[in-house]
Amino acid sequence: MPRLRRVGYRDAQTGKRYVFLTNHFGLCAKTIADVYKDRWQVELFFEAIKQNLKNHAFVGNFRNAVLTQIWIALCAYLLLRFLKFLSITGWSEQRILRLLQSNLFSKKDLLTLIRPSPPADHDCPLQLSLLA
């Protein structure tokens, strides 16, 4: 049976206490906690990719096929997050993705899709009724 080390760590910002099991005996508790925190961020990132891009299974079983699909999913998700960043509407990734899917074969500028123009003054009947 492999030897394990129990590491306790208290987060200074939140005050929460975490306990980890590791087989690394030369690293300090803070380093172990940072590694697990970074691994958790990677898990959350892949969960977001699976949730938003519906990427539940790999198309191929070979290493190159799996890596290609992961790279394509990463690029697509980063582009989606960048569009959300550029958007002034505050829409979710799901809504932006649906908008892109519905306009997939139309020649429209992406920025005009995610930044709809405000209605012109003559298009707003409420303003006309207030002025009359």
What does this structure look like?
This protein has two domains: 1-45, no CATH class; 57-113, no CATH class. Strands 1-2 form a two-stranded antiparallel ribbon. It is 54% helix and 9% strand. The relative contact order is 0.07. It is elongated and about 60 Å long. Strand 1 and strand 2 form a beta hairpin. Mean pLDDT is 80; it is low at 126-132. It contains five helices and two strands.
Put the structure in a nutshell:
This protein is mostly helical and 132 residues long. Helices cover 54% and strands 9% of the residues.
Q: Could you list the spans in which at least 5 consecutive residues all have pLDDT below 50?
A: 126-132
The H/E string reads: EEHHHHH
Specify the helix fraction band. 40-55%
Return the structural class: mainly alpha
Key features of this structure:
132 residues; mainly alpha; 2 domains; two-stranded antiparallel sheet; 2 strands; disordered C terminus
Task: Please specify the SSE layout and strand pairing.
Layout: E1 5-10, E2 17-22, H1 29-53, H2 63-86, H3 93-102, H4 110-114, H5 125-131
